[in-house]
Amino acid sequence: MSAPVETRWGRLANFWADFRQNPVAVAALIVIVAVVLMAIFAPLVAPQDPYNQKALDLFDARLPPGEVGSGGYVHWLGTDAAGRDLFSAILYGLRTSLIIGMMAGAFALVLGATVGLIAAYHGGRIEALIMRVIDLQLSLPAILLALVLVALLGQGLPQLVAALVAAQYAYFARTTHGAASAERRKDYIEAALSTPLPARKVLFRHLLPNALPPLIVVATVQVANSIALEATLSFLGLGLPLTQPSLGSLISNGFQFLLSGRYWISIYPGIALMLTVVAINLVGDQVRHVLNPRRSR
Amino acid sequence: MIGFLIQRVLQAVMVMIAMSVIVFLGVYAIGNPIDVMIDPASSQALREALIQRYGLDRSLIEQYFVFMNNMLHGDLGESFIYRLPVISLIWSRFPATLELALTAMMIATCLGIPLGLWAGYKPDSWSAKAIMAFSVLGFSVPTFWIGLLLIMTFAVELGWLPSGGRGPVSNILGLNLSIGSLEGWSYIILPAFNLALFKLGLLIRLTRAGTTEVMSSDYVRFARAQGLSEGKVVGLHVLKNISIPIVTVFGLELGSTLAFAVVTETVFNWPGMGKLIIDSITVLDRPVMVAYLILVVFLFVIINLVVDLVYGQLDPRIRVKAAS
Question: Is the dihedral of CA B35, B37, B40, B46 positive or negative?
């Protein structure tokens, strides 16, 4: 059993050697790792727990960056209208945004891949019907679908994730369908299907792994898209309440102070959002480049 | 061709019916509009009178058929908040969104095609790489955040342009538009540029991809061998050959520009349809939500239908495949 494990590691090493070629993508990867680590260890890194209303002091409200508040430490990024330390709020906001983005991405991947596989496996009328619905959904902008669903389902974390999944699973379905229907006609799948193995097993053990590379690329980009979409919904006032702020709600919260020159309340959370989203996209671009089978080596 | 036409039109009608059911059920499943409309302290009799007036005591199926029947007669109901027919409410906001979307498309075209041509013409140059990096930004950074940066830079710090609103409008061809006056332009330019960014990124990528493909083709080589100037080669042969796919994709994007206007209009406080739908979602103004959604779906179905039919006309293989 050791041989396939070794080749798997070997493939991973090859992948990394190719990935490393682009310094911008490596820098982006470092940014992502740093952002994820800061989000995970937010309670240790942040000087203040932004959810603890008792720790907030209104005397500290809207302090510009670099001032020392009543807590006795420097607010490097300033404070918001409730006296929250913005650096702490951004770390906790990153946490919320990343969790939502990854949850939505993962659920959309599972749902979309399943739908796409079913369509590719059955073919005929079922395939035509499923793909027609998927195409139709893709022709509607994701923001609109998410907006409608949040409006219908109401506010809250599960509703938000459900809306994001419903708005994005179609991308996974189309990608899986494309890759899987090409694999479906190959001999090894026909051979596996002619054995007494259940079709479900053939689909998930044989077909799916071979259709995986394009899915990985779509998954990276979709996590970034989920984060951006969630931020947009929160900005429009349809996301999470401010007691549990994501980056989008922090930006939205600071927007009203922007016009009076207190830029930091919305600009710093926005920079965090932009860094995260762009870094994920850059890594996704490089992964696409490396996994592209037509790439000349 | 007739069979193909009938098939596609039937499909579009079925999609519209399905969407109307989904929108109707979805919107009617949330909250009781009566609670929003009247004071909680008012009497039970008043409550029931209102429920009866809006037909909310009938069964869901009955309500749906009444709603469909009214809609086919051009009556989409009355807003709970504004007490105006929804159609005239949406229509009054329509010119603002339309001029915003068209200005954005114009900005995207005037900047995107030259930049994309250049990036495809000199793909290894420093400037081409900068253009492509810019297109990634336009693609991935959320629109609302760029809008905030624009406001901060041009309205708060530099003070050159107003931070939001629509400014004075003048009547052009029966529509109230801002683009008639210079002051109106100062209001529209920031939101339009903001809305254009996403399309700009898309258009740069499309044009570049087409240009790199065409540049290596035989007819470009022959045109050069003929001694034509580089300007003529690019302007005549390259531009013509990449224009068809660009025009198609861009036609499709008009619908999504109208939809994306939701975000830009909220950031810049632009009084268009998008602002209207966000406001009506927050106050649960159901008739406005339903009407807006159905109109948008209708718009998309029509655009897709037209594209399908035009493609079918241009490419007989699509017709044959669909008919079998």
Answer: negative
User: What phi-psi label fits residue A180: left (phi over 0), alpha (psi between -120 and 50 degrees) or beta?
Assistant: alpha
Contacts with B274 from chain A: Cβ below 8 Å? none
Is residue B38 scored above 70 in pLDDT? Answer: no
In the block, tokens 């991935």 appear at B140
Give the pLDDT of residue B40.
66
Q: What is d(CA A84, CA A243) in angstroms, rounded to the nearest whole number?
A: 12
Q: The domain B87-282 is classified under which CATH number: 1.20.58.60, 3.30.300.30, 1.10.287.950, 1.10.3720.10?
A: 1.10.3720.10
Q: Residues B37-50: what's their mean pLDDT? A: 72
Residue B76: the pLDDT is 73
Closest residue by Cα to residue A94 from A37, A55, A52: A37
The full DSSP string for B52-114 is HHTTTTS-HHHHHHHHHHHHHTT---B-TTT-SBHHHHHHHHHHHHHHHHHHHHHHHHHHHHH
CATH 1.10.3720.10 domain residues, chain B:
87-282
Q: What is the pLDDT of residue A108?
A: 92
CB contact under 8 A, A148 and B293: yes
Does the beta-carbon distance from A258 to B304 stay under 8 Å? Answer: no
> CB under 8 Å to A139, separation ≥6 — which residues?
B252, B300, B304
Whether A228 contacts chain B with CB within 8 A:
yes
Tell me how far apart the alpha carbons of residues A281 and A275 are, in angstroms, rounded to a whole number. Answer: 10
Beta-strand relationship, B170-172 and A74-75: unpaired
Q: Is A240 exposed, middle or buried (0-12, 13-18, 19+ CB in 10 A)?
A: buried
Tokens encoding B165: 């609103």
DSSP 3-state helix, strand, coil percentages of chain A (rounded to 5)?
75, 0, 25
Torsion angle, alpha carbons of A131, A134, A136, A138, to 10: -130
Helix (H) or strand (E) holding B244: helix B239-267
- Specify the pTM: 0.80
**Closest residue to B141, CB basis, from A154, A277, A285:** A277
CB–CB contact A141 B260 (8 Å): yes
Check B26 against A235: CB less than 8 A apart: no
Structure token pair of residue B175:
């529509």
- Helices A23-40 and A86-122: crossing angle, nearest 10°? 110
- Taking an 8 Å cut-off on Cβ atoms, the answer to whether B252 and A139 are in contact is yes
Residue A288 to residue A283: CA distance in whole angstroms: 9
Q: Does B311 touch chain A (CB under 8 A)?
A: no
Would you say A92 and A102 are in contact if contact means Cβ atoms under 8 Å apart? no
Residue pair B276/B82 in contact (Cβ under 8 Å)? The answer is no
Query: What distances in angstroms separate CA B220 from CA A231, B114, B122, B234, one per listed residue?
Result: 46, 18, 15, 9
Residue A2 pLDDT more than 60?
no
Topology of domain A22-54+64-291, CATH: MetI-like fold (1.10.3720)
